[in-house]
Amino acid sequence: MTRSKLAVSLLIAGTLALGGCGAAVSQRAADREAVAEASYPPTGQLLTVDGHTVHALVEGQGPDLILIHGASGSTRDFTFSFVERMKGRYRVIALDRPGLGWSDDIGPDGLSPLVQADLLRKAAEQLGVKRPIVLGHSYGAAVALAWGLRDPGHTAAIVTVSGAVMPWPGDLGPLYALTASSFGQAAVVPLISAFVSPERAETVVGQIFAPQTVPPGYADYFGVGLSLRRDSFRVNARQVTALKPYLKLMEPNYARLPMPVEILHGDADQVVPVEIHARPLGKLIPNAHVTILPGIGHMPHHVAPEAVAAAIDRAAARAGLR
Q1: Where is the AB hydrolase-1 domain (predicted)?
Q2: Largest Cα–Cα distance in the chain?
Q3: Hey, how many other C-beta atoms are within 10 angstroms of the C-beta on 271?
Q4: Mean pLDDT across the stretch 302-309?
Q5: In the structure, what pLDDT confidence band is assigned to residue 5 with cuts at 50, 70 and 90?
Q6: What is the C-alpha to C-alpha distance for residues 302 and 168, in angstroms, rounded to an integer?
Q7: DSSP line for 117-168
Q8: pLDDT average, residue stretch 112-128
Q9: Residue 66's pLDDT is what?
Q10: pLDDT tens for residues 32-88?
Q11: Helix (H) / strand (E) containing 321
């Protein structure tokens, strides 16, 4: 038995053993959620789009730059330092994807990156966005490409950073399968929300940044507690597990994207491997420019921000915005 399967087996056994403690687990999870929400309130505007709340942070002046975060994320991933870097020459609009951060879950339709893109685009329209550069990180890159597919005539350029944008071989492993299942959503997710330790959460963040180290202060600023809320955890598990079939639908249409596309990826990314995602994507899109960052992992906007900024500037120039 692999280590991951053993961990899942132990988690299931522990869940069953704690089955009679459901009320206590729910209360502990609720208490931790209340602390997280009080500690990390919305930093931007709460817009109403089709009856749903969408959290949007707007800073700076210049051409519009949309930032879309990845799995288990929120706008706080960008506001830690990257928004400050870019707001001097762009109007930066960071958006929480549906069900994450401070944006509402929109139900089963929200599992589609295409539907997510539609919702976020409507939110951007409320803010007066006309012809943006759309940047997506990790899962958010699929939403950025979906944005371009849905509205090619009004999307100036796309930038993908460590993008999960192509169907991948195999599956995501037993933990995602479990936490996206009916049993996992009902029984396992509350346990994780209630009992995962800060040390374990910091370990996971470190794995996402590897082989680079987590910037000082990032873990405290980001607010892992928001991602560990039961509803957010459930939505994220469902979104990630459902992504691959939507990428299969999107892939044949990538070649039709008419706008400049900048593809940025680290060759040491073990979360979203470059050979499965960035390189094949670059071959499909006629207007793509691929930049591979040697030795860089999954978080270039933190550990190589100058390279991400340069990709955005290239996209702006290629789109005639500068």
Answers
A1: 65-311
A2: 62
A3: 17
A4: 98
A5: very low
A6: 25
A7: HHHHHHHHHHTT--S-EEEEETHHHHHHHHHHHH-GGG--EEEEES---S--
A8: 98
A9: 99
A10: 999 999 999 999 999 999 999 999 999 999 999 999 999 999 999 999 999 999 999
A11: none
Alpha helices, H only, 49-111: 76-79, 82-86
CB 203 within 8 A of CB 213: no
Instruction: Please count the other Cβ atoms lying within 10 Å of the Cβ belonging to residue 14.
Output: 13
Q: Which of 201, 174, 222, 207 is nearest to 78 (CA)?
A: 222
Residue 22: its pLDDT value, please? 80
Q: Is 100 helix (H, G, I), strand (E, B) or coil?
A: coil
Q: Alpha helices of the chain — where are they, by DSSP H?
A: 3-17, 22-39, 76-79, 82-86, 113-126, 139-150, 174-180, 182-183, 189-195, 198-209, 218-222, 224-227, 230-250, 278-284, 300-303, 305-318
139 by Cβ neighbours in 10 Å (0-12 / 13-18 / 19+) ranks as buried
| DSSP code, position 16 | H
d(CA 255, CA 299): 26
Exposed e or buried b per residue across 79-116, where buried means at least 16 C-beta atoms within 10 angstroms of its C-beta: bbebbebbbebbbbbbbbbbbbbbbbbbeeebbbbbbb
Per-residue pLDDT reduced to its tens digit, 152-185: 999 999 999 999 999 999 998 898 999 999 999 9
Give the mean model confidence (pLDDT) for residues 180-195. Answer: 96
How far is C-alpha 157 from the chain's CA centre? 19
Please state the rounded mean pLDDT for residues 273-290: 98
